[in-house]
């Protein structure tokens, strides 16, 4: 454990899972026989307030019984899935981590995600801020270092890497550089390289990326980004442009991605805007392989506190407004456990993004933290999905959920 | 809705290039470069007779043609400022019309194309273009000029390069026949339809893919134009058709004999607000194009123009297998060479 904190997330629980893995899905093992448990946790948002609602009668379980010739168990639940052109061992990917300082655990995270074959997104501004190939700063690793760390560990047949490009990244031609770099030739040849167009993020809808930098760094970046001096002689706020979009600009940018990078997957990340459903439809119609919706609960390296509390639609409302209709919808926002993941799958997502939770896990244990957190998630997901009488994660649906107001 | 098709992810290994000792002493190389000289002379004569002024354009600048299809630009450290080697002269061509109504140049360009282009036989990382821009020209005008120029240059070679064509095994009368008739003008959608009818999975709404382009080129009996590429496949400076939104007033000239595209051109967008909007549609940051947009805000003439790939034209006229054979010191994507 180093310096990282995650206000708003159950950080202690995440760290416990990163240390103890599946054992942390249960109460402390030494309390067995000496304690009794019950009650509910405090709801944090509408998704937390939802309950999974298993039915008594389960034709799906009967089908599985017939298939297996024995009573099915939770361990029979299939979690493998295809998402946005990649195959994954469970319906989880690691969300974009950008150039912000807390993403400095990025190499450890890249290695773990690679080893596990979990798709991963590398965030915007990494190349212009931290360099394309390398950087001397332990907290800011160059784009290619992150890519190589992932690829070195990646087994055959699973996973995939998406690279975001912001408006400032476009100046640095990040996608062009990545697309023809020998570091990604293996990913390209196996269909495991993607590019993600970032329209925005949940924690600060309508704003671009924000990071705090030193005065010395600010001097180099002033022509490229807006900078804001928040205190006299103190740290400086660096602001990316959010980029201007209309439906036509949006459509054409996606078509250009498909035109220019035919061998790469095309992902689009939307912030929780009120027209998120319309935007998702345009993205899919224009050729996006996956659309990510980052709810207002989503994490960030830095944002105005007013935005965290008051701007953007909650993830549950976004999912009501988006109709995937068989197309790949990815959801992120305060995901750290298997139960929230299964609820999001039941609400229409194909897979869920781990952002802050992945960082905390890698911070807790740079070698095995993410692996244990995912072990715990997978166990919870299998138990939850099987309790619904389903035996594949993508078989869940809205009928598996109960809303308190209903 | 745009129909998108996912493609095979594999591509062939790049060819090994001969050493300069071998390549420059090869009689076919010498003959091809002589043919190239005649093509340039023919193009110059045609354009000068049309009162166009030959200009010498910058090699580096703060910004260049963003291009498409994943080609990288080359950065140059210009006294602490990031400059680019020119990928095409388009921005300067439009601005140059403030000085003359008709301009042309024989311009070097550098594009670090994706490595899979090393096997297309028609991509070089470093190449030259016969670049032409006429104020007030429509797309049809620009195609007329391109057609006339190619016809004149090819005829010049057929008339003056008998010995070289003999070395290359090229019949001058074949060349004359290729350019004897007007070049057909086929809408992009029609080409896509034809390819799909023939079983090729060409996507709508995107470029004609390299393999598909070779296929239509192989089937062609003479050079022909493909007109009206969709938005989302080309640069911000190709004007959108007011009559057919989503379609650009642009064209490619396709050579026969599997040689593919020789030339791209268009009626240009010159209106400031449209340029800024189109830059965003192509994912560009307008701030990067400050000098160009400043000129545009004060009024760039309406224009049409094109760029003919000199090595591609040479490859076709000389009957070469690959475009690298039409240059003395070839640079292929991803291949280290002198």
TrEMBL record, chain A:
Pfam families for the chain: Glu_synthase
The record's GO molecular-function terms, alphabetically, read:
glutamate synthase activity
The name this protein goes by in its record: Glutamate synthase
* Coiled coil regions in record: none
Lineage: superkingdom: Bacteria
Q: Which family does it belong to?
A: Belongs to the glutamate synthase family.
Q: What is the native source organism of this protein? A: Streptomyces atratus
- SUPFAM superfamilies for this protein: FMN-linked oxidoreductases
Residue stretches making up the Glutamate synthase domain: 195-362
GO BP field: glutamate biosynthetic process
